[in-house]
Write a structure and sequence with these properties.
Layout: H1 3-44, H2 46-49, H3 81-117, H4 119-133, H5 137-148, H6 152-179, H7 182-189, H8 194-230, H9 242-254, H10 259-286
Helix pairs in contact: 1-3, 1-10, 3-4, 3-6, 3-8, 4-6, 5-6, 6-8, 8-9, 8-10, 9-10
Subcellular location: Cell membrane
Protein name: Peptide/nickel transport system permease protein
Keywords: Cell membrane, Membrane, Transmembrane, Transmembrane helix, Transport
Length: 291
């Protein structure tokens, strides 16, 4: 085999390997996106596709297994688990959405303000974020529940505060780099004000990073919301919510009827994994992580 032929073979193998890596990454990203989209659609159209009222009690169908009448069985009061899962997707997704959007907007605003203003503004904002970062979300939720009472709204508020540093600390570093780039100095020389430069140029350039952070945090936020409901600080009965369903179905595990906790827990795990894979894929493509 000549050197030219050897080089051609090596080149073809290298291209094939790159193609396999690319397709594998895209397939994972597409699959994760499809799972997320499917769950979102199920939550949106839950009233149309759920076979029963999620809170309808049937004393004659207590703790039944899967059947033609009840696809995923019933809970300890005879409520249809499939219907409760579909309706439970609404608060289970809406609460993390509010948390991630709120933390993303406020965290980005604080990060950009700290990086752009500098000086004591930067030190003060960073100090506040460091203090918040030191308090776990569960501790804040307990404090909020003790002051205002347990409920999903309080859990959302405390989680939004808890997730602020996770967005702001990362965005601040990128905002500092963005501020020192030559195009910012050129815009200043052209007479553009600081506010206009930030809103029309700096923030749009930071949006991919913010999107990656919020997409990755969404799954973990859903897990935290479910955990708060599980310990009684989030959604309250008879609300259909995944974390609460896991808690309510726990006694049935030892009684031989684990379906409520099983299916609700499986829904949480699948969605969190899909969000993590989606966030990782977006990170590679939007922030230049893919080579």
């Amino acid at each position: 085999m000549t050197s030219y032929q050897l080089a051609s073979v090596v080149g073809r193998r290298a291209r094939a390997a790159r193609l396999r890596r690319l397709l594998r990454g895209k397939l994972v990203l597409v699959a994760a996106g499809a799972v997320v989209a499917l769950v979102v659609l199920a939550a949106v159209f839950a009233p149309l596709i759920a076979p029963y009222d999620p809170n309808a009690v049937d004393p004659m169908a207590v703790s039944q297994g899967s059947s033609a009448a009840h696809w995923l069985g019933t809970d300890d009061t005879g409520r249809d688990i499939a219907s409760r899962l579909l309706h439970g997707a609404r608060p289970s997704l809406l609460a993390p959405l509010v948390v991630t959007v709120g933390a993303g907007l406020v965290g980005t605003a604080l990060a950009v303000a700290a990086a752009w203003l500098g000086g004591w503004w930067d030190r003060a904002i960073t100090a506040v974020l460091d203090v918040v970062f030191g308090f776990p979300g569960l501790v804040l939720a307990v404090v909020g529940a003790a002051v205002f009472g347990a409920g999903l709204k309080i859990a959302v508020l405390t989680l939004t505060i808890a997730y602020l540093p996770y967005v702001a600390r990362v965005v601040r570093g990128s905002a500092l780099k963005e501020r020192n780039l030559p195009y910012v100095a050129a815009l200043r020389m052209l007479g553009l004000g600081g506010g206009r430069i930030v809103l029309r140029h700096v923030v749009p350039n930071l949006l991919p990073l913010v999107l990656v952070q919020t997409a990755t945090a969404f799954g973990y936020t859903l897990l935290d919301v479910a955990a708060f409901s599980f310990i009684g600080l989030g959604a309250q009965p008879p609300t259909a919510e995944w974390g609460l369903m896991v808690a309510q179905g726990a006694p049935g595990i030892l009684a031989g009827a684990p379906q409520e906790s099983l299916y609700a827990g499986l829904a949480i795990v699948v969605f969190v994994v899909a969000c993590s894979l989606l966030g990782a894929g977006l990170s590679q493509r939007l922030t230049g992580g893919e080579r």
